[in-house]
């Protein structure tokens, strides 16, 4: 050692974790007409990746506190991109326009510090694939506690106690906080992800394929757990899935996406049982009905694949696969229009356009 040198100069300093300010829920203020703002209000949201792929195109949706909104569609229709856009979790270079109002505050225009404060505390996300979302070398209790410590919603001692409560709330023993992700089953890891999403008491939870790759018994348990938490805590839930039947059973309202746009939206049971849009009908028909031998023996499918987001067809993007497409569908895009009270669909066969089509035949 060089004489006079300080010993402290050779010590490695541990990186500091800079906590962010705790996000306090913003109470929805009445609009000019007296109606309260929605918990989540998505207005003309568009997402274009750096490659030029238009993954989300002009989506308008709203969600009230205590309500469950399902988003369905095939792989590649823009569901997960929409979910990630809500909290600005998309890769650098992605262009996002429109508005995402959370409690009346636009997430897309928030400064970085404010956005960090909103994530987990104002809105949280349950990512698809729990094994890939959890850190394999950290105990699950530490991972659940981390958002609470970063947002300073609890002291380390209180956070440890809260972790045990959250695990028991999602049906796991508090002692499992000492386990590593690989020591848990798929259903248990999914419960851990839900516990983490609840850690900072958010007002909105986005669940992206929360039951993917789980067996039907575990699926049912996870779905009932999500329903109970939404009911008990008055949360808003956006749930994404390929499974129209699961969404119809779990959610209040259902939006069907195709090629980055919402093509049908309405009460979940009505959209599932009697879809207005041909694509919604095809998705619903792909699931056999219990007690209906005809649908079980001959479930209906849909030929082809969704279009490439970077090379969308002209007119209605569904017309190349649509069994009831007309000549006009290849040249004119169809906007969402009223199909019946509380329901919208983007199809020439729906609403006032249907009457015009009949007259021209």
UniProtKB/TrEMBL annotation:
Membrane topology: Peripheral membrane protein
Assigned GO CC terms: plasma membrane
Key words of the record: ATP-binding, Cell membrane, Membrane, Nucleotide-binding, Transport
An individual GO BP term: peptide transport
Record has Transferase as a keyword: no
Principal location class: membrane
PROSITE patterns linked to this entry: ABC_TRANSPORTER_1, ABC_TRANSPORTER_2
Gene3D superfamilies: P-loop containing nucleotide triphosphate hydrolases
Pfam family, any one: ABC_tran
Biased composition (Basic residues): 8-27
Residue stretches making up the ABC transporter domain: 40-284
Annotated localization: Cell membrane
Region (Disordered): 1-33
Record carries keyword rRNA-binding: no
Coiled-coil residue windows: none
GO terms for MF: ATP binding; ATP hydrolysis activity
Family recorded in the similarity comment: Belongs to the ABC transporter superfamily.
Protein name, per record: ABC transporter ATP-binding protein
Species annotation: Streptomyces triticagri
